[in-house]
Amino acid sequence: MKIEQIYTGCLAQGAYYIESNGEAAIIDPLRETQTYIDKAKTNNVNIKYVFETHFHADFVSGHLDLAKATGATIVFGPNATTDYEIYNAKDNEVFSIGNIQIKALHTPGHTLESTTYVLIDENGKEHAIFSGDTLFLGDVGRPDLAIKSDVTKEDLAGMLYDSLRTKIMTLPDDIIVYPAHGAGSACGKNLSKETVGVLGEQKQTNYALRADMTKEEFIEEVLDGIAPPPQYFAKNALLNKTGYDLFETVLEKGDVALTPDMFEALANEESALVLDVRNRKDFVTEHIPNSIFIGLDGGFAPWVGALIKDLQQPIVLVVPEGKSEEAITRLSRVGYDNTLGYLEGGIEAWKASGRETTSIESISAEAFEIRLQENTLNVLDVRKDGEYKAKHIENVQHFALDFINEQMNEINPANEYHIHCAGGYRSVIAASILKARGFHKVIDIAGGFAAIKKTTIPLTEFVCPSTL
Fold first, then answer.
1. What's the pLDDT tens digit per position in 300-359?
2. What is the DSSP string of 346-377?
3. Whole-angstrom distance, CA of residue 219 vs CA of residue 288
4. Looking at residue 149, what is its pLDDT?
């Protein structure tokens, strides 16, 4: 028996490869599936099943491509309906893979079809659970992503309480927990950085598994402090239900080298978004006018999903050399399949063609401190709500990047704005968006709040009302 977690940091997502005696199963695969196919081929095994724990909202799963390539059966839990052929597992139904078994436990709550898969080893022992978004390490899945007119988030939270206590917490304490996500995922509130644990430890440390917790207390606590879901979540969940283009088709269409003339024509005539995915320092120094920065070296796919509202938006890329396929792949993971090509030769080719570039002013935290002492400045803190509340500069405007498109009317294009985040990545994204929208007096604070904290700039800390 072999279990391999294939973890993707950008999405904080864990897919799983399970193998026994010539057969394999994949749980919650990513959009690009060649990794799983290659593993099976190398080990001379047949991929028999693709198990989905639920309709994922934060990424487009690779179940359709994988089934097409291998002949594997796609398995969802009860209540799942799709526009393509699947097998609906019954609660407690058992599937054989070589010498092991996978038992489906219907665990609704995160979504109505959410299912946890129990791996039973060669000796008949319950060895591990693949809990999807039902149970994370340190947290549980948010119950507000599958709302129907007759099902509220409170209803789903109540279902989740029951699923955890009747299906999960009754399992052996030594059973291994393999969740679908870790820290950084928006599918929960406070996920652990660890990606593998054991159930007994979770019973002791996970707030949602407290033995003395009533259903009413659980509903209140699990719903408390949940930020609104990113706008792309519902769209990705729909793609996972209805289907999507083959990944190889998306890659073939998008991985096309474009001359500056072709690139500019697509940007103008097709209204393609110019997306610059290089290092933020390179973007600040020089970039194509009206381009948007979201760097590959940060939380690329989730920020694309949060900020680019139309999954069908035509996109042309400015990429580091040799990174076009990676960029297209990571876009497709969250359903952005309409990449039309990348600028061959990058910024140097753009300049060599006689076209203009522009830049963003970026200053150190120390220089910002001097300016703040000498003048009244407009400062935008683009961190998340929790980060801002924990500690922030006195008298600054909270302008969370997540909701920048909805907040544009709160600022004035005639004004100058100094922008910071935690470390510098998000502030450059924000500055690029503002500049493309006509805010030309934007100044990035390099190093973000981490650098600001090392200065003597006055900071305000959030004080919990209960301690007053």
1. 999 999 999 999 999 999 999 999 999 999 999 999 999 999 999 999 999 999 999 999
2. HHHHHHHTT---B--EEE-HHHHHHHHHHS--
3. 49
4. 65
Report the alpha-carbon angle 288-343-267, nearest 5: 60
pLDDT, residue 145, reads 86
Above 80 in pLDDT, residue 441?
yes
Read off the pLDDT of each residue in 388-401 and give the average, rounded to a whole number: 96
- What pLDDT is attached to residue 466? 45
Helix (H, G, I), strand (E, B) or coil at 257: strand
- CA-based nearest residue to 75, from 54, 56, 96: 54
**What are the phi and psi torsion angles at 379 (to 5°)?**
-120, 130
Quick one: angle between helices 247-254 and 324-332, nearest 10? Answer: 140
pTM over the 0.90 mark: yes
Task: Grade residue 467 by pLDDT with cuts at 50, 70 and 90.
Answer: very low
Domains and CATH numbers, the chain: 2-232 (3.60.15.10), 245-352 (3.40.250.10), 361-467 (3.40.250.10)
Q: Residue 466 is which amino acid?
A: S
User: H or E element: which one contains 443?
Assistant: strand 442-445
| Residue 3, beta-bridge partner list | 18
Alpha-carbon gap, residue 285 to 260, rounded angstroms:
20
Helix axes 324-332, 300-307, angle to 10 degrees: 60
pLDDT digits (tens, 9 = 90+) for 42-83: 999 999 999 999 999 999 999 999 999 999 999 999 989 999
pLDDT > 70 fraction of the chain, expressed in percent and rounded: 98
Half-sphere exposure in the Cβ direction for 418 (13 Å, CA): 23
User: Distances from the Cα of 201 to the Cαs of 108, 208, 259, in angstroms?
Assistant: 23, 13, 56
Secondary element (H or E) of residue 317: strand 315-318
Beta strands 397-398 and 379-381, pairing class: parallel
Closest of 307, 264, 272, 269 to residue 288, by C-alpha: 264
Task: For Cα atoms 195, 200, 201, give the angle at the middle one, nearest 5 degrees.
Answer: 50
CA-CA-CA-CA torsion for 265, 270, 273, 274, nearest 10 degrees? Answer: -10
φ/ψ (deg, to 5) at 35: -55, -45
Q: Which of 96, 97, 178, 108 is nearest to 141 (CA)?
A: 108
